[in-house]
Design brief:
Radius of gyration: 22 Å
CATH architecture of the largest domain: 3-Layer(aba) Sandwich
Strand order of the largest sheet: 8-7-6-9-10-12-11
Structural class: alpha/beta
Strand content: 15-25%
Number of domains: 2
Helix content: 25-40%
Number of helices: 8
CATH topology of the largest domain: Rossmann fold
Length: 273
Amino acid sequence: MQTIRLTVNEQPHETQAGKRLGTLRDEVKPEADVLILDGAPCPPERRLTGGEHIVLIQRGEIPSEADLESLMVARHTPGVHEAMKHGVVGVAGLGGLGSNAAVALARMGVGTLIVADFDVVEPSNLNRQQYFIEHIGAYKTDALVDILTKINPYIRVEAHRVLLDRDNIPEIFRRAKVILECFDRADQKVMILETVAERLAEAFVVSASGLAGYGENNSIQTRQLGERIYVVGDLTREAKPGRGLMAPRVNIAAGQQANLAVSLLMDPDNVQL
């Protein structure tokens, strides 16, 4: 009988042509109750012809660390995944920018996230931050750890419930290769940029400024201001009456911060803005 090649849960697999999908499931993962073939749910009677991409899922199952890693490697390619797995990124401030950027980095598989904030989740935060109704009143560090571990239970999240200042920033972020500045106030932004420049001279900083309102997607850009300092935003649109902080533009900026962090982890000498 003809042998065919396909992938099962991102691993190469050989079987016989014409075999039913359900039979393959019984051989490989009999507990699976969701059968995905080439991106769509498929009945077990479907016969296989070769080249199919199959995912076998047990509802409610949390993949093992090895299984999840193999899935990440397949999506990112091995070199990218290794760089992400060993990467350390700090997130200073866990509001609209920080919470959204941290979620993106967790989905990328960044191995260690160092997150810091002193605040609690308020109802008004839900218009742009990655929290849910159930998190209202919780410390943002606790709420974000809850969210990140649901996305990827195998990354390391170091959470610091603290008001960041010139004295504690060097110790908290000493292992971070990239630090995302995600504060609201201008004086806090200046403080962390100066502190990192003076005491964490090997770290990259990705700051943000000018995110308020809605519209004008393309005005949010990333600029390099120094050898290790980048700023995301339009640098002008501050929050004021009639121009609040809203999820779409904040998310665009947070995505640019996270994307730049990935670039800096991968190849800091050849970053493309």
